[in-house]
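Incident review: delayed structure delivery

Summary: a single-chain prediction request sat in the queue longer than the usual turnaround. Root cause was a stuck worker, restarted by the on-call engineer. No data loss occurred. The affected request and its eventual output are reproduced below so the record is complete for anyone auditing the incident later.

Affected input:
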Amino acid sequence: MNTQYPVRYLGKPLSGVVRPPGSKSITNRALICAAAADGESRLLRALRSEDTQMMIEGLNQLGVSVSWQGDDLVVRGGTDSVPRQSIDVFVGNSGTTIRFLSALAAAIGGSYKFDGIQRMRLRPIEDLADAFRQLGVRASCNSTGCPPLELVSSGFSGNQCSVRGNLSSQYLSGLLMASVASGEAVQITVEGELVSKPYVDITLDVMKAFGAAPLNKGYHSFEISKDSKYLATEYAIEPDASAASYFFAVAAITGGRVTVSGLSADAMQGDVAFCNCLADMGCTVIYDKDAITVIGGSLNGIDVDMNAISDTVPTLAVVALFASGPTNISNVEHVRHKETDRISDLSRELVKLGATVDERQDGLTINPGELRAASIETYNDHRIAMSFAVAGLMISGVVINDPGCCEKTYPEFFLDLEKLINQDEV
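Output delivered after worker restart:
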């Protein structure tokens, strides 16, 4: 893709139907569970993206065969094939890959080094390394508590660990999935507040689909029994609810009507709750058995705790540009440790478009102003790129720099956005 994407200005309501690709969160979790299950699993309509490719290549390096067959991933699982030798795994900027795959590697044993791009070397992982050490694994990262992460393991020799919950729920998710593969009874205690609980629910749901069911004691502790094991299966991947948020936002800011197929109010992904935010802002939301429709309305600002749906913070922040009155987003300090600092960098780009932003450590307040054209820096963050592309539909002259960063989770985003525009014009 070109280094810039001039957003096609519409300035009118946009209506249509779209189906985003498979969920990254579900795909990468299912890949871990399938890799540790003896036999062949098939992941239906899995996500084909940079993040999932990082996971696939990492599993292949570990000796697990993962390959595409059309839109599906076929995994020939079983940890007996893992060579348990010195392996260097490059994860790019994929947080799920380094956290989930390193946990699996620690559980089955061997010598490993996990590293990524420069931004990955700024993303904390010391808490996960500390949990590994409690489980008898030699684990080290650099002096800042970030990758590279090095492991030397003979499998889990301890049966208890604790992990902080305030930075990322992915540490807990990685430990949960890996503990089943370890063949040991493991108890995991969460210290402090657990952020993004719906993503832990996704982990537990995927594990259950593959035959393992940890005991959840109020999200404060989890127990994995010694006889837990994964079973190979055929598993369908839901469309990505975080990706769907951009199209719901299209309906909200243009005053149009957009239907996302393949999702419902009962979807396993907590990010469908983004629609509740839009409803509070003045949109109409219609839930069907296999689709969600958002109809735009007169938007008002809201005060919202987005801890549970933090991946949609950039989307809501952009919608806030078009609302009457301020929108306050709180309890999302952990998004400062994502692909970029999603509070500071998001604030900077919102100001370019005319907003006044009050930034805090745990969130931001967006005060709408007179909208104006701008060239948007994306900071190699797919969610900033996609969110601000939506704004450009109603602000003439918005240009997205480095649109290729969307390869991370949604390579076809701009094509799907154009298809939605073209539907409306037929």
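Verification: The CA atoms of residues 3 and 97 lie 26 Å apart.
Action items: add queue-age alerting; document worker restart procedure.
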